[in-house]
Specification:
Layout lengths: L1 H15 L6 E8 L4 E7 L9 E5 L8 E4 L3 E6 L3 E11 L16 E12 L4 E7 L4 E7 L5 E2 L3 E4 L5 E4 L1 H12 L14 H11 L12 E18 L9 E16 L7 E12 L2 E8 L2 E26 L3 E8 L1 E14 L17 E4 L1 E8 L3 E12 L6 E15 L4
Antiparallel strand pairs: 1-2, 1-5, 2-3, 3-4, 5-6, 6-7, 7-8, 8-9, 9-10, 11-12, 13-14, 13-23, 14-15, 15-17, 16-17, 17-18, 17-19, 18-21, 19-20, 21-22, 22-23
Length: about 400
């Protein structure tokens, strides 16, 4: 099975060279007001994009690049909406603990994209996030964006001090549009509070945004587990490798940071499997040749947090790589030495103790189809679950399995 696994990994290598794109139906508005339909490469942006890649047709070999100076706005497949803004932006760090010990009101002139958070008949809330900070902007209808101002810094006594100018800005709008502020709660300069406030100004009932999409799955795998003694001083060192072929069952969940893109995912998996290794060594007792057998059964429940990267990432087909940390809880039985000849009262040898809690480090590669079925191949490097200084017992695992997703997006 290890040869098959190695061949499959070599087969997957070409996927690693693919600069995977994720073009979605989109529309941008040029500086002259002309709306152009096409496709934008929708990335898992951790910060507000500085530029976008655009194609008129999905089959086009080349693409155009636009920044906030080139276009007025763009929308991605009803998923995201951005406008361009030219004006002053604040430059002070205002999020604990990344604060300075003086009030900083520095601004600079810039042209940037603003991402729409919520909108309505009166006011729209936008966000811009870069390496310096997260900024929020409000736009009344037929007006230009205005940044919500909030400063936080350490005072002379090393205590945090805040200047909440944004509360006055929001209060004026609440009064102007006769909005109900009774359910806004304690003010906080974050997206949730600001969105709730703008929704109130627009007369909308605030709907709490869903977090990252959670996908549930169940699975079964067929494992080849190779177990052996290693070290310099142990009677079973030369007893070879015990190979078991046994199933593993699992359940789990994974969450995407951006479920619309699904480039990265965090997965947690709970599994159960077992092994029944046996080791033989030749013996001679009272002129008789025979062999001894060391055997034990291991029953293992594993909890494995994993990071998944979708190397090839389309709506209906994905190829991914996966690395994790296996936290194992094991129980043992039939830990014994037996012989095929009668040794009388002679000492059979030591029976060893094995860890009930131990770690291993699985690697995985696989394909998912139609957002429902996943076929995967995994490998776990030889990992010891003994505490002896001069020898160890370890297992390596090659596996082939499937996951079935109980929900999809």
């Amino acid at each position: 099975m290890n040869k098959i696994f190695t061949c499959l990994l070599f087969l997957f290598v070409p996927f690693l060279t693919i600069a995977q794109s994720n073009y979605k139906k989109s529309q941008l508005t040029q500086n002259d007001g002309l709306a152009v339909k096409g496709y934008i490469n929708y990335r898992e942006w951790s910060q507000t994009p500085v530029f976008i890649s655009f194609k008129n047709n999905i089959s086009d070999k080349s693409q155009s690049t636009f920044n906030a100076k080139n276009i007025l706005s763009f929308q991605i497949d009803s998923l995201e909406s951005f406008i361009s803004y030219r004006g002053k932006i604040s430059m002070d760090k205002n999020a604990f603990p990344d604060l300075i010990n003086v009030l900083d009101t520095t601004t600079k002139q810039d042209t940037i994209f603003l991402q729409q958070i919520t909108t309505g008949p009166n006011v729209t809330l936008f966000l811009n996030k870069d390496a310096v900070k997260t900024r929020y902007f409000i736009v009344e209808k037929n007006d230009t964006p205005k940044e919500l101002i909030y400063h936080e810094y350490y005072n002379i006594a090393s205590n945090t001090t805040s200047i909440n100018t944004y509360l006055g800005q929001l209060s004026m709008l609440l009064t102007k549009y006769n909005a109900n502020a009774s359910r806004l709660g304690n003010p906080k300069f974050d997206e949730q509070y600001l969105e709730k406030t703008i929704d109130a100004i627009n007369g909308k009932s605030h709907k709490k945004k869903r977090g990252g999409f959670v996908r549930l799955f169940a699975g079964i795998a067929f494992n080849q587990t190779k177990t052996k003694f290693s070290g310099a001083s142990n009677p079973w060192i030369n007893s070879g490798t015990a190979t078991n072929y046994l199933p593993k069952i699992s359940i789990g969940a994974e969450v995407f940071d951006n479920p619309n893109v699904q480039k990265f995912a965090l997965r947690a998996e709970l599994s159960f499997t077992a092994i029944t290794p046996k080791f033989n060594r030749a013996i001679n007792y009272a002129g008789k040749d025979g062999y001894q057998t060391y055997s034990f059964n291991q029953y293992n429940v594993g909890f494995t947090p994993q990071l998944i990267y979708n190397v090839y990432n389309s709506q209906q087909f994905k190829f991914y790589l996966d690395a994790g940390i296996g936290i194992n809880f094991s129980a043992y039985s039939n830990n014994k030495i037996t012989s095929n000849i009668d040794l009388g009262n002679a000492y059979q040898g030591n029976v060893y103790s094995f860890k009930t809690n131990w770690l291993n480090f699985p690697l995985q590669a696989g394909f998912s189809f139609q957002k429902r079925l996943e076929v995967f191949f995994n490998y776990t490097y030889p990992t010891s679950y003994t505490d002896y200084s001069n020898f160890s017992v370890s297992s390596s695992i090659y596996g082939l399995g499937i996951h079935y997703f109980l929900n999809k997006r």
